[in-house]
Protein: Cobalt transporter CbtA
Amino acid sequence: MGLSFGSVLRRGVCAGVLAGLAAAVTIWLVVEPVIRRALVVEDLRSVHGGSSAPAHGGGEPLVSRTAQVVGGAATSVLVGLAVGVVFAVVFARVRGRLPGGNDVGRSLVLAAVGFASVSLLPALKIPANPPAVGDPQTVGRRTLLYAVVLLLGVAIALVVPALDRALARRGTSRPTRSALDVVAVVALVVVVLVAVPSSPDAVPADVPAALLWDFRVASLAQLATLWLTLGLVFGLLVERLDRRGRVPERVGVVAAGSA
Structure:
């Protein structure tokens, strides 16, 4: 039994929503405690008349912290849904070229590539900062730099497989191609890390190094949770269909509007 495009897409939506929920739980349990520590630094800065304009202290906040957490969780689910749709479309196109003994393995490989290209690489170059770090006037520049690194990460994820296919057409052996793929990835990542300007924000002296480190690790944990959950759940959903009939190596649109 073949998979229609609608079947793949629905499983991507389901997996994306669950991945967003898992990421939201990670925000609540792992990221939020670090954010509250950062807000304490902002409040102390405000009390002592720090030069940096506080985003939290100095009056009642426009939106309560509880509302911010709930809004962040809702945003996480929406982001997960969107990523799940894109993930399903990409999986449908490249399933036959992904390594792995089954659809769970293939899905996890694709999730690992997605995490590395659109989450890990940007985080290495433009790392996340807690509320006590960052100048509001540089938000636009930071966002632009982050988007540039993200797009370059996607480009690397597209260029390296294309290189591998070109080498395969020339009869290059699998071990040699794998070695060249690794060299290409490392070289391109180094180029991105060196060529793209770093974040324009300096870390204030009153922000403990442990706080900065904990926040960046927690932020990566949130993203890793999203991608891991997406890859695992999506793979299991597709694999379940595979048990009910043979799934073709390339999933495509069987019929417009088919289930």
User: Anything to note?
Assistant: Confidence is low (pLDDT under 50) at residues 51-58, 247-259. Residues 135-200 form one domain. The radius of gyration is 21 Å.
